[in-house]
Design goal:
alpha/beta, Rossmann fold, Dihydrodipicolinate Reductase, domain 2, 2 domains, 15 strands, 29% helix, binds nicotinamide-adenine-dinucleotide
Length: 412
């Protein structure tokens, strides 16, 4: 229970860390007291102010090393670093009794994610993962509408352009990664488009459809001549998720170069209807007249727009939920905890494993526990040698974080 403002530190002030800084700066029950990033330009006050208007570093500790962040007297830490760059910081934070907000995916390696979860459970701290789309008013209305219905199929098709990935704030060119800092296009840094981006729609499907039991996936590798600046992620992904309820979900993603085209399609079907997200909001299509119908059923009678609340800033909303939960020591205020998010992580990491095993059906319970999957759970450098590498992909290496120095701002 925290009586005063929640004292928050942020690790990683890049694209996402800056968005969280902007949100936390607007939450009156939170106070950002420390910021950590290995690269000094990411801690410059002028840059931070572009994302958090009026933010001042005068009473904020800035540092380049995590250990120095811990000295700031924190209640909670946000982790917003590339998912392959964790080196035990989150576990140390939990062991130190700090509440945790971790950006998705929390790791590219299941063993590491499981170790984080165990530390959080042991410490009994409040912890969540950045699935802010659950807080979108449209998605909440869909959840309420589908409650109690028997879901059959969930379909998400996303066609994306490789060039739509952002230039990130990590100096990947100095860390053995892509020269252009577009690390979301690189397999070693992002863990594939399914893991980096597909985890959002998959997590929403779980929000509506419950737990995933198994996954089966086939990826289409990028041709070697199509790989530029380390953008070696597959160009197509066909993934099937089986839910414990018996429902089946399809996630179909493309990330093509030189197309500059993006579109998508979404459908959720239950046993007596379809739900679609249209330009003005979610719309359910179902028949609610006498059955069998006395005459011809007009298409217009089937269309039922859902009543939704106003759509706000979902990053602000998940931040508010986390701050409230951490101050009260009460996870029931969250729409997802770190532990409840593990099923989303296992499902997308399991998709990679399935593809590497030629499209094998991967039961998530076995993926977490069975010795046959042990090599696929491990982090490189921890004996992960039996895994067949992507045959057609050039992987950039992801070496350890360089040692750096710390600075403490006057007045802290
Ligand atoms: N929830 C969302 O919608 C959403 C959106 C974007 C990114 N993300 C996630 O946020 C995470 C960060 O992505 P990003 O887009 O901000 O990347 P980014 O490269 O723009 O920013 C990462 C920041 O972390 C810093 N950093 C790297 N290693 C560090 C370390 N060991 N300690 C401290 N700081 C370190 C970098 O210097 C950089 O400033 C990723 O997991 C990404 O998937 C989530």
């Amino acid at each position: 229970m925290v009586a005063a403002k929640l004292r928050v530190g942020i690790v990683g002030l890049g694209q996402r860390g800056l968005q969280h800084l902007g949100a936390l700066h607007r939450i009156s029950e939170a106070q950002v007291v420390a910021l950590c990033d290995p690269f000094p330009e990411n801690l410059a006050e002028e840059k931070l102010r572009r994302f958090a208007a009026g933010f001042s570093l005068s009473r904020v500790r800035t540092c380049n090393r995590f250990e120095q962040l811990l000295e700031a007297g924190l209640d909670a830490v946000y982790f917003c670093i590339p998912p392959g760059r964790h080196q035990g910081e989150l576990v140390r934070a939990a062991e130190g009794g700090l509440h945790i907000f971790a950006e998705k995916p929390v790791s590219l390696f299941l063993d590491e994610a499981l170790e984080m979860e165990r530390a959080i459970q042991r410490a009994g701290v409040v912890a969540t993962v950045g699935f802010q789309q659950r807080h979108d008013a449209w998605h909440l209305a869909i959840r309420d509408f589908l409650r109690g219905k028997r879901l059959v199929m969930l379909t998400q098709v996303t066609n994306g352009a490789l060039e739509s990935h952002s230039v990130k704030h990590t100096r990947t060119e100095e860390l053995g990664g892509p020269a252009n800092r577009v690390w979301a296009a690189n397999f070693a840094w992002s863990g594939s488009t399914v893991v980096e981006a597909g985890i959002h729609p998959l997590d929403l499907m779980r929000f509506w459809g419950g737990e995933v039991a198994w996954v089966r996936a086939t990826y289409v590798p990028r041709a070697p001549e199509d790989i530029v600046d380390g953008g070696d992620n597959p160009c197509g992904y066909a993934v099937t998720f089986g839910f414990e309820s018996g429902a089946v979900a399809t996630l179909s993603l493309t990330r093509l170069r030189q197309t500059f085209w993006g579109d998508g399609y979404q459908d959720i079907s239950w046993d007596h209807g379809h739900l679609k997200i249209e330009a003005e909001g979610p719309v359910a299509y179902y028949y609610d007249g006498p059955y069998p119908p006395p005459g011809r059923v007009e298409a217009a009678a089937l269309r039922h727009p859902l009543q939704t609340g106003p759509r706000g800033d979902s990053t602000l909303a998940i931040g508010q939920a986390f701050v409230e939960a951490a101050r009260a020591g009460d996870t029931s205020r969250l729409l997802n905890t770190f532990s409840s998010s593990m099923n989303s992580h296992s499902a997308v990491l399991g998709a990679n494993v399935s593809d590497q095993l030629g499209g094998e059906k991967v039961e998530l319970g076995e993926l977490i526990n069975h010795p046959k999957y042990a090599p696929y759970r491990k982090k490189p450098g921890e004996g992960r040698t039996a895994v067949r590498p992507y045959l057609h992909l050039r992987r950039a290496s992801c070496p350890p974080t360089p040692s750096t120095t710390s600075t403490t701002r006057p007045g802290t």
